[in-house]
Amino acid sequence: MAISSKLFSLLFLQLMFISSLSNIAEADGLSSRFYQYTCPGLEYTVAKTVALYIKKQPTLAASLLRMHFHDCFVRGCDGSVLLNSTPNNQAEKDSIPNLTLRGYNVVDAVKAVVEKQCPGVVSCADILALVARDAVRMIGGPFWEVPTGRRDGTVSISREALINLPPPFANISSLKTSFLSLGLSVKDLVVLSGAHTIGVSKCSSFSNRLYNFTGKGDADPKLDKYYAVALKGKCKPNDQKSIVEMDPGSFKTFDESYYTLVSKRRGLFQSDSALLDDPDTKAYVVLQAQTRGATFAVDFAESMISMGQIGVLTGNDGEIRRQCSVVN
Ligand code: HEM
Ligand SMILES: *[C@@H]1O[C@H](CO)[C@@H](O)[C@H](O)[C@H]1NC(C)=O
Ligand SMILES: *[C@@H]1O[C@H](CO)[C@@H](O)[C@H](O)[C@H]1NC(C)=O
Ligand SMILES: *[C@@H]1O[C@H](CO)[C@@H](O)[C@H](O)[C@H]1NC(C)=O
């Protein structure tokens, strides 16, 4: 008797938990239980496959997170970033900002396993959203419920990536415009920028800040001068190839140290430094730096759910690709 009532209250608590999560998770036609009947083991299968790759190569997590961001900011989260170019069309994959995107093979491997399990049911856009979430979680990041039900687009245009992805030299007003135009908030901007707590960058993405920034042979005055010297040691003028850690020392761990760096004027990109140029984004940076990221994990989860809903195709729009790199 005692046991069964305990069991009941446990079940009840669990139900409350699930329904409170799905309140957050259900929006724009996506649902946290979209594949409940059509592909019940999906999340387990995805997590297991992602784990195989991330264990071997933890640095792939950063690239997979960035890939989901690039997907969502260009034509919505519709898997367009995964499509290959064709003889008549240069795809997003082959645009300049793709730079170091790696890990397409992880998405393809997950898709292949999922296709065996539930053929023709799960979109590549959903798979990428799940893969990014799992990869982040596996390197110490937060967990979030990924609402699913996205469908795959059939169009991918290189030039659109260049137009829609904010460049590393973006200033605060153009960053805000970019995020707001996609239905995200200024808070989402400062929270999602925290993704730069992991990963690496090519020198060419920021070396304009190191050499002759204002035409007087100087570095960007918004960059800590000692840090500028250290970066010059890693990136000689016109070095297009070398890479540096964006969060030196903990670039493989998803933590809040990004905000500590930015608050010390050691953000790598102008777009990172720009977060100090707006009172609201600056306040957030300072708060996270001072509180060791008191709310960062929760905020990041929330903002990722919002980002994952940008321009999604649902219902009968688009298709369920059989292979993520080509349209059916
Ligand atoms: C706010 C505007 C943003 C700008 C201007 C920006 C720009 C960049 C640039 C230039 C790189 C380096 C690429 C290279 O040189 O190899 C980079 C890397 C990265 N970005 Fe962003 N980004 C932004 C927002 C985001 C968001 C919203 C996310 C994810 C939620 C994200 C995740 C990442 C990650 C994880 C890396 C490291 C990739 C790797 O190690 O392979 N970024 N970003
Ligand atoms: C990115 O685009 C360049 C051309 O701009 C291309 O050479 C490269 O293979 C692309 N990278 C990936 C991973 O597709
Ligand atoms: C910010 O960048 C945009 C786009 O490059 C430019 O048009 C604008 O003048 C810049 N704003 C400021 C305040 O520098
Ligand atoms: C720095 O920039 C100025 C103005 O564009 C130019 O005249 C000068 O030659 C540059 N110096 C170097 C070392 O490239």
UniProtKB/TrEMBL annotation:
Heme b binds at H196. PROSITE patterns: PEROXIDASE_1, PEROXIDASE_2, PEROXIDASE_4. It is an enzyme of class 1 (oxidoreductase). Ca(2+) 2 binds at T197, D247, D255. GO terms for molecular function: heme binding; lactoperoxidase activity; metal ion binding. Its cofactor is Ca(2+); heme b. Ca(2+) 1 binds at D71, V74, G76, D78, S80, E92. The record marks R66 as: Transition state stabilizer. InterPro entries: Haem_peroxidase, Haem_peroxidase_sf, Peroxidase_pln, Peroxidases_AS, Peroxidases_heam-ligand_BS, Secretory_peroxidase. It catalyses: 2 a phenolic donor + H2O2 = 2 a phenolic radical donor + 2 H2O. GO terms for biological process: hydrogen peroxide catabolic process; response to oxidative stress. It comes from the Eukaryota. Substrate binds at P166. Removal of H(2)O(2), oxidation of toxic reductants, biosynthesis and degradation of lignin, suberization, auxin catabolism, response to environmental stresses such as wounding, pathogen attack and oxidative stress. These functions might be dependent on each isozyme/isoform in each plant tissue. This is Peroxidase. It comes from Cucurbita maxima.
